[in-house]
Amino acid sequence: MQYWLFKSEAATWSWEQQLAKGEAGEEWDGVRNYQARNNMRLMNVGDLGFFYLSQAEKAVVGIVEVCATAHPDSTTDDERWECVDIRAVKSVPNHVTLAMCKGEPTLGDMVLVNNSRLSVQPVSPEEWEIVCKMGGL
What we know:
By secondary structure, the chain is α+β, with helices and mostly antiparallel strands. 25% of the residues lie in helices and 36% in strands. It has five helices and six strands; from the N terminus they run E-H-E-H-E-E-E-H-H-E-H. The protein has a six-stranded mixed beta sheet. Strand 3 and strand 4 form a beta hairpin. It is globular and about 40 Å long.
């Protein structure tokens, strides 16, 4: 099992929209960054991820599961770009903000803390546990 973080802007794709997709989930499309794409290529069905809202809230608001491995991104004909499908698992009761993560010494090496611009990023098992606890899970 691997852990990830998926960033979205609420105005583009909200947690409520992700929840509404139900078991079918949705393509995590539109990613045009090689490092983020390469992270998606490493994902397996069943991997879990944080759904993180950037921009205004800057917080982990939900848990998602990878439900389809990397495949061509349907929003482009450019074969360089791939995506995975994710489905909502549960909401995070207490949103975990970027400021909270930066303030937690044990998260000092977390990609989110050091490279908050990367849209799809790995999360270590230890970081996963810490953020889940901070979020009330």
